[in-house]
Design brief:
This protein has two helices and ten strands, in the order αββββββαββββ. It is of the alpha+beta class and 155 residues long. Keywords: Copper, Metal-binding, Signal.
Length: 155
């Protein structure tokens, strides 16, 4: 078998094998909930992203939610560089952050994540079906480490 055929076969296998998919990149239910339903009511939580005094921040960095509540995160990047918000468990976000360091141009088109250019706005609609403490972070390399992280407490 030629090298070209082997490479093509490997590519097809990787694209078609669901076991290779990152669980944070699907629309299935996860430990912290599932994508929201735009036909149902949602509480709006405004989150601002910005840089200040050498730090990168989310304002607010703590969101409290009732189990079963749907939240529409209305995001605004008031910063001078791109930022993103990724909702997940702390473990998932730390793991995904490592993947981002290896592939810094990775962008998200996932229901639990939104990347924004400076001065842009966006939304994430999420239904929190499980109680617990969850994370939201900017996983662009260096941003989480500069303070761009927050906590979601679901009671």
């Amino acid at each position: 078998m030629s090298l070209r055929i082997c490479i093509a076969a490997l590519g097809v296998l990787m694209l078609s094998a669901p076991s290779f998919a990152d669980p944070g990149h699907s629309s299935e239910k996860r430990a912290y909930g599932e994508p929201g339903d735009p036909r149902k009511p949602a509480r709006v939580v405004q989150v601002t992203m910005r840089e200040t005094d050498g730090k990168m921040l989310f304002l607010p960095d703590l969101v409290q939610v009732r189990k079963g509540e749907q939240i529409k995160f209305v995001l605004r990047n008031n910063g001078e560089i791109d930022h993103e918000l990724v909702i997940g468990t702390l473990e998932e976000n730390l793991k995904h952050g490592e993947q981002m360091r290896r592939n810094p141009d990775m962008e998200h088109e996932d229901p639990n994540a939104k990347r924004l250019a400076p001065k842009k706005t966006g939304e994430v609609l999420w239904s929190f079906s499980e109680a617990g403490e969850f994370d939201f972070s900017c996983l662009i390399p260096g941003h989480r480490e500069a303070g761009m992280t927050g906590k979601i407490i679901v009671k």
